[in-house]
## 1
Amino acid sequence: MSAAGKRPARERGSTAGHRSGRGRPFVLNVRSLRSRPGTREEVHLAGPIADMSVSSAEVPEGAEVRFDGWIESTLGGVTVAGRVSAPWSGVCRRCLEEASGTLIAEVRELCRDPRDAALDPIGTGEEGDESYVVGADELDVEPVVRDACILELPLAPLCSESCRGLCPTCGANRNRDECLCEQEVDPRWSALAGLVSGNAEAAMKSEQAEQPRVEESDDGRPEEEDVEVEEP
Ligand SMILES: [Zn+2]
Ligand SMILES: [Zn+2]
């Protein structure tokens, strides 16, 4: 919280181009830093960042996202480096109950000053790091923090590493309920079940085979073809 004084809270709304509305806890005043290339400042920032989610998990709306690290004035911009952390919540992929945790990401990004890039035709502005920018006075660390969080959100969340998931047969949550399905899968049971159904089939066949014979003798009409068809 030592960097609280660095937050240009009173400048809120005075800078066009930034997200409007909410406060901007990740915006730093870097005028002094940028006037002294090579200078490094420790920063500790915290606040909510809206709309951070992937299909499987999200940083809950209003949750505190933290950045602890430093910023350094470099040629053509400011380097942001440190650790991003945020709570996440999602749905456990095994038991479908709520899952949550804390994501942590290490970041190190160069935020370029677009004006410097424009003034430097042989600059390295095409290396793909143009996505982060810094102004003469202001640095918004939020895009760096946001990207790090989204990359770090779990794609297959688990409520716990030892989650036992749902029973595929009856759907019971095995973390809470003991179902009897696992016993039915016991090989001894399945062998017995096969034996029982085999006997039933054999019994039905012998019944069917015998019945025509009884009728035959009653009617006195030997129809051997019917018996032959059923035997194989
Ligand atoms: Zn689970
Ligand atoms: Zn079950």
## 2
Amino acid sequence: MKAVVFERYGETAEVREVADPEPVEHGVVVRVEATGLCRSDWHGWMGHDPDITLPHVPGHELAGVVEAVGARVTGWRPGDRVTVPFVCACGTCAACAAGDQQVCERQSQPGFTHWGSFAQYVALDHADVNLVAIPDDMSFATAASLGCRFATAFRAVVQQGRLAAGEWVAVHGCGGVGLSAVMIAAASGARVVAVDVSTGALDLARKFGAAQCVDATRTPDTAAEILELTGGGAHLSLDALGSPATCAASVNGLRRRGRHVQVGLLPSPDGTTPVPMARAIALELELRGSHGMAAHTYPGMLELVRSGVLRPDLLTTSTVSLDAAPAALAAMDTAGGAGVTVIEPWS
Ligand SMILES: [Zn+2]
Ligand SMILES: [Zn+2]
């Protein structure tokens, strides 16, 4: 099969022929029809993820068709249209037993702990625990977004953020996850303040329902601007980018008893990120992380997508072939871009 492979961190990946994957006994191999380009892929390529060993094939938000099934898989057969959460759970640890597969103790992640979906085929573990059927009328490009960016945003806003209609929500960083969060929050009846450094990203945020936009290149103190725009601070705030500056701004832009949800990865050199904890104490703030979404909680989100309340299809702004993927990955620098690129490995 063809796959995007990199041998060294930060050096341009190449498209080459590699061996087709085989399913393990509890796993499947999926023919990849669409796979999104995510900032986490860029972090992995840059060497920020300790799970990756070289050479490596990135890619973790995918949809496709089951090609081959391991001997112990009971729920899936070749031809099934599927997606998968990027956190693939083991199904048997204490976290999985509690229904928290998104923080599984023995998780695998395609594109991180093993070769991912920037390829024509990808192997996935524990298929009976992790695969999610996608409706016949949903495109593969749309379904791919449910593997990472859209599901991650959904859990951050709805499950971890416990958003209520009428609340103010601040979203720091309007890449794929951030724009998804803007759409989900606006559809939930919240008033959204979107923050980004890109006018293109803010234009999309406005289109997806943001009531207010803050251009961080023109507003040095984005937290002060949010306190002003929301009449005292956001009820819920997401750092959807992942940087010490956006994390702090998210916490500092909250009102009393507000909730901060950290979604963006924080690749700090020393492994820790400063957080304004004095404010967290004084205002009784709540700080939470959010990490993917368990496969068994997908049906509620899928129904909102099917009914048209949520439109993840609108987030895709470009579609490219596998051959164009290495350049698209390299172009995904810290400045971010507007919208989401989807790779179609068979185009
Ligand atoms: Zn991702
Ligand atoms: Zn587990």
## 3
Amino acid sequence: MKALIKQPGLAPKMTEVLVPAENVIIKVLTVGICRTDSRVVDGTIPVEKPTVLGHEFCGIAQNGKYAGQRVAVDPLINGLFMGVDIDGALSEFTAVPEENVFPVGNNLADEEAAYLEPIAASMAVTKSSATKEMVGGIFGVGRIAELTKLILQTEGYNIEYLQPGIQYDYVIETGPADLTPAVEALRPKGLLIIKSRGRTATIPLGTMVAKELRAEAVAYAPYPEAVKWLEANASLLRPFIGETFPFNSAMLAFETAKTTESVKTFIRVGQRDT
Ligand SMILES: [Zn+2]
């Protein structure tokens, strides 16, 4: 089968590899590109061995209790991330343990189903000690900031982009490397919620200490909750869905993803059997 493989220090290359033989085998339909994937492609996040790219996807389970169903996947497998630490989804078939597999409703387009992982990541804020009664602010702009705001609003949270002159009970950082404006917008004893990965950031410790602020880092909401949100709110995702490229134009898809941050770019790997 064909797979798009990143080798340490080299550009990704379409390579012929063996179909995986263990775990739940998934025939890959559509793969979404996120910042993590782009960083692996350009080498900012290094791979240690030749690794199949991609981690946001849907496909058809070929075996196990969901055989024949369309599924999306939690790409964090025993602490290892697909497309970074272990083989990912940009191949005709991929394989994951059954507990990482989630059937998704037929009402969803493949691109919407492939959105499960970023939704679980944005929804992770619901695990923090921020409550719906608190006044929350989002720090950052772009697709992840917008998606986080959308998901929290549909869940009933009082959340907006940071506005001047308001003291927030909590602020969620979604990307910028200097967190000073986020820390300054918090009320005394307020809560800084951290969700970005794969980079370092500047935090003004003096202000943190003077205001006795707290910080919490969150990674993912439980995937069944993210599936429920996706099935109920898929139509709200339309503004976040960009172009879909065929598998043999995967590198063009990565190029496009760089210049269209506000929408997600997808790669169509396989078709449903009819
Ligand atoms: Zn992702």
## 4
Amino acid sequence: MAFTKSALAAIKGPRYLAIIELIQQAMIEGELKENERLPTHRSLAKLLGVTVGTITRAYTEAENKGLVRGEVGRGTYVIPNEFTSPSSLEFLQNTSGKQNYVPSYNDSDSGLNSAGFTYDCTSLAPTSNNGLGLIREALVNSATEEAIDLLFSHSYSQVDDEVRAQFVKLLAMSNIHTSSENLVLTSGAQHALSIIIAGLSEPGDIILTEQLSYPGIQATASRLHRRQVIGIEMDDQGIIPEQLELVCARYKPRFLLTVPNLHNPTGITVPESRREEIVAVARKYDLIIIEDDVYCHLTETPPKAYVSMAPDMTCYVSSMTKSIASGLRTGTIVAPEEYVRRLSATLQSSIWMIAPLMARVNSHLIESGQLPKIFKEERIEIAKRQNLARDIFKDFICSANLEAPYLWLTLPESWTSVEFTEAAQSLDIGVLPSWIFAINKDIAPEAVRITLTGISDINILKQTLESLAELLQ
Ligand SMILES: Cc1ncc(COP(=O)(O)O)c(C=O)c1O
């Protein structure tokens, strides 16, 4: 037990700082979990043999450090932070001795092609090599004198109007009609989310998101920027508006960060009627909607986007990393003009400017006019894989959208999510357990995400899925 007089006595220095150290230790050892309530001031003072004033000072300082939050009349709660549950990275490093299984820093979804598993059902790289020829051509076309000159310029204007105009065209392919004035170019969707959070929110702001959520959201919002993230309960149409309203009334959050198309990990595409309800709640409570539409090109006929329903209060994020190639790191934010200035300044503070050459390569891809064909081929390939998986897992409960590059498999009662992940790993198959996606880890369902695009040969994918299904029997 971390909170004892002897544990406190063992730490030198001012008592309130020593108490913060005890709190951190309790977090590291799992005695204090994310969102758990700390002991009351009075009871902790008694346990440690100090005054209530010392505890108040320790809790206030811990709050300033972003470790806990005080709620008037309710108590003090643990905020997810670097001392609480291990990050997905640590988890992935620690399981089954798979030390090589290291995703890029805060995103268990990218860069997993190099994962240590022979059969990789974790990676979200696009399947096909459909775009290969086109990418080659775009690289060659980008190597102009003018583009090379750009490498020697140190202008923060980033990219010229022509390139920006191409991105406006790309957005129009997904029915997002905007202009250059509302556009910020970033180094991918993850970077876009990061600069929106850094640029528009303040320390202490609460960000709402789906209770099951792409781990990069937790990584950037709580681990990198130390904002508090609260997960909203979902049903098979996404966030439940009544739950959203309850949380808004109680916590006065400022942001809703949501993935309405092919939600990662469940594959849910939120229907338009549900989106209208969400917008109504967001308006009532003055929320900014951060619409993460990184899968936009994989949805053939997406419902109306939040940015089209409520452009004045939405920051819309997308990129081509999930539809063509993970390395094409140019993302877009569409935002009201008043935010664009702040976001551009934040982008400058983070990386000065996006790599102009990469923006040009993307711009050539758009200009080629071939992208709709490539997006379509990718959708066909994914549907083929989803149908295969549907057949193999027909006796089990899957949330499987034909357009999503992954499926969310609810495990039979005999399995926990972590045990199944470990059993799959012992067959050299990588899948991701539910808690990696859960905002509130205590209510993570017994489920796993199985990605269908990480194994390029469909016959090998079939054998891999059959092995997983056999495990389930
Ligand atoms: C929902 C979601 N948003 C953002 C990203 C990051 O996208 P990018 O590779 O463009 O940074 C991912 C990656 O898996 C994702 O699933």
